[in-house]
Amino acid sequence: MATKLATELESFQSIWKGGFFKADPLEPLDSLYGLWGYTSMQHATYLACIKPYINSTTRAVEIGPGRGAWTRAMVGADEVICLDALSPEHNGFWEYVGRRENVRYCKVEDFSCGMLTDDSVDYLFSFDALCHVSFDGISAYLTNLFPKFRSGAHGFIMVADYAKYNSFVQNQSRFDVTRTLLAKRSGQLKRRLIDAYLLPLQTHARNRANWRLLDLSEDDVARPGRWYNAGGARTCELLERLGYEVVDPDMELDYRSPVIHFRRH
Asked: What is the pLDDT confidence band of residue 189, given thresholds at 50, 70 and 90?
């Protein structure tokens, strides 16, 4: 056995001069596997924020489920309670998620979370919902949720942050997958794929995108579907003031908006 293992170590001595290196882990779109090395932001969020925390004993709450795209990723929980300003009929929720005994949908009239009992929630998730809620509304939600959380409960919320969004708008090329692929040396087949598919896709996406810088001093007036500049740092300060522990102020899963991970001690 010792001779075998020594031979195994020796077999490495003549390869990978300078150290094996195919992709930079700190670059968001650099990939070891090229065209096949990418996963969507939504799926990455599922893998990091939902999958490790949902099991058959979890009592989960989702704020702003909409049609239920994220809800379907949580149906393995003991119970999922969805809170939304719109009705399930309006959202087509049950048609998409399917009727399930462990999923409850509540159309909210306020931010009191009165349908939840104290010390009952293990997990909270909200994505692309609280960005449409004012900071006062977010404050009310997080205040009223605190007694509902069990000790050790985890929460993940995405909020709007105009400064991060503006940085994305000003640095779009860094997050452009076609730029990354074009920067790599490529063979004839890959070159044809780029010419036929990626360049037209890039042009189409840029023409359709309505990216513009947002005014950091924008008003707080309610308008349908608007973003409110809650800000990642301000939301984290609120969480800590309320007694939560901020585990990660931004998981860097969304290039435009912070996803905050917090928990109750």
From this structure: very low
Question: Quick one: pLDDT at residue 36?
Answer: 83
Q: Three-state SS across 61-130?
A: EEECCCCCCCHHHHCCCCEEEEEECCCHHHHCHHHHHCCCCCEEEEECCCCCCCCCCCCCEEEEEECCCH
Beta strand 259-263 with 245-248 is antiparallel
Give me the sheet containing 259-263, strands edge to edge. Answer: 103-107, 79-84, 59-63, 121-126, 149-158, 259-263, 245-248
Average pLDDT over residues 52-65: 98
CATH architecture of 41-160+227-263: 3-Layer(aba) Sandwich (3.40)
Note the pTM of the prediction, 2 decimals. Answer: 0.89
